[in-house]
Amino acid sequence: MREIFKSRWDESNERGRALLRAMLPAILLLLCVFSAGAQQKPVVLRVGYFTNITHAQALVGRACGEFEKAVGPGVQIEWKAFNAGPSAIEALFANAIDLAYVGPNPTVTGYVRSQGAAVRVIAGAASGGASLVVRQGAGIQKASDFHGKKVATPQQGNSQDVAMRSWLRANGLQAREKGGDVQVLPITNADQFTLFLKGQLDAAWAPEPWAARLVHEAGGRIFLDERDLWPNREFVITNLIVRPKFLKERPDVVKNFLRAHVELTDWINKNPEQAKQLLNQQLQKETGKPLAPEVLNDAFSRMAVTYDPIRSSLLKSSQQAFDEGFLGRTQPDLSGLYDLTLLNEILREKKARPVQ
């Protein structure tokens, strides 16, 4: 009986081993497929930006696919357009984006509100590119003429909104909510344009190309080029920021994206006419309408692309935002806001001067 049982046991084991040998290639193939699928699953990089000329690197880079080339096939970029900085910061808080082109005041507000946990500045993007535009029939010739007027900004607490309120204060004026008689209306750039055309708005502090559009298409004129308020006519209007958690987890992805940002900055400065053409093509693709040549050229004349974050101007803007009550009751500590390590690594690789 033992011999019979042992014989059947051996036969059973042999059949099992034979079956396993027959199935092994299929098992190995399935393992390879699952492994390859896991390896090929792309990293998703979500990038916020505006359809403004002051976000030129984002628009030109989108038009020619430079960012996708830089990060490689293992990274999928999802682009998300915003109207103004506070909305982009809220998306950052909600873990809906990882990187963003955004203005200085929303950057500071996001840093302060998150106690430094949500925002790091990793590069600059643009200097200049914002103006106070008045409607021709509004009767505004000097600062005191703003009494009783309606003035628009893109969004409450954004960079132009803070600049507007600070300028009013410096000229002895105040918004209605502060006891003055100037009605400050935080509305989208597109709505500003419509109200200008209808004669229902007296002025707007607008970024490019909206300032140029208000002049050339909506009967406005430049009352104040914001560059005139700053040393050397330089101030940061756009920074490139990142979620610190994403920066820690994927510094390689951030560095590759940042390298493309630096190279696009240099290329735009060396090839402005080609850059404007690509940018306008992207604007047409995203908004349905390209800018008229005179608008495009006028807008570009009041700004410069740069990877220098122009830290000193952000610190002054943050003081203005604090004075206007946007940053709480205590002067914020911004010592941890900047992380320029990757930017300066890239600049050293290119034998360019590091930034501070």
Describe this structure in words.
The chain has 356 residues and is of the alpha/beta class. The protein folds into two domains: 43-128 and 233-349, 3-Layer(aba) Sandwich (D-Maltodextrin-Binding Protein, domain 2), CATH 3.40.190.10; 130-231, Periplasmic binding protein-like II (D-Maltodextrin-Binding Protein, domain 2). The protein is built from 14 helices and eleven strands. The chain has helices at residues 2-40, 56-64, 66-71, 85-93, 104-113, 159-170, 189-197, 210-217, 244-249, 251-270, 272-287, 293-300, 311-323, 341-349, and strands at 43-50, 75-82, 99-102, 120-128, 130-135, 150-153, 183-186, 203-207, 220-225, 236-242, 303-305. A six-stranded mixed beta sheet has the order 2-1-3-10-4-11, with helices on both faces. It has a five-stranded mixed beta sheet with strand order 7-6-8-5-9, with helices on both faces. Helix 5 crosses helix 13 (311-323). The protein is globular and about 60 Å long. The chain starts with a helix and ends in a 7-residue tail after the last helix. Residues 4-9 have low confidence and may be disordered.
Keywords:
single chain; 356 residues; D-Maltodextrin-Binding Protein, domain 2; 2 domains; six-stranded mixed β-sheet; 14 helices; globular
